[in-house]
Amino acid sequence: MQEELAARDCLGRQLTVLEQLKQALTHENQALRDNDTAALERWTLEKQALLEHYNALESELNLLLPAGQSPAQWLETLPAHSRQLRERAIELAHDCQEYNRQNGQIIQGLQARTREAISILRHNTREKSLYTSDGQASYRPDTRFLGKA
Questions:
Q1: What predicted TM-score, i.e. pTM, was given to this entire model?
Q2: How many domains does the chain contain in total?
Q3: Residue 7 and residue 13: Cα distance in Å, rounded?
Q4: Cα within 13 Å of Cα(139), Cβ side
């Protein structure tokens, strides 16, 4: 009975942390879309702290496991309310993974855009030869390079 209460308490705290994590990921997404680096840094740190807290709670839950039982077997022995908490926690964890994946895609897109901008800024027209209509390479420092084929 004592272990059941401890498990329910731990599962409830996990659920709270996962709800906070989902909220932090939503704020992180908005910061990415707004290009708000200060908010992004704040929400990334918050996300990291919440993940560490969740992992600590998962370790706490694992300490309650009876010897020789897997987590799935043990959860089946718990009352329905505790199983429902765990199922909801699993759903929230999947939501958080999806939100994090989406944020990662935004970051990859921003990185690609930044690399392209840097490439354009570093582009040195003196290194490129321009070709005349008869196919001869020529260098004209007064000409602007508009693109490449």
A1: 0.75
A2: 1
A3: 10
A4: 7
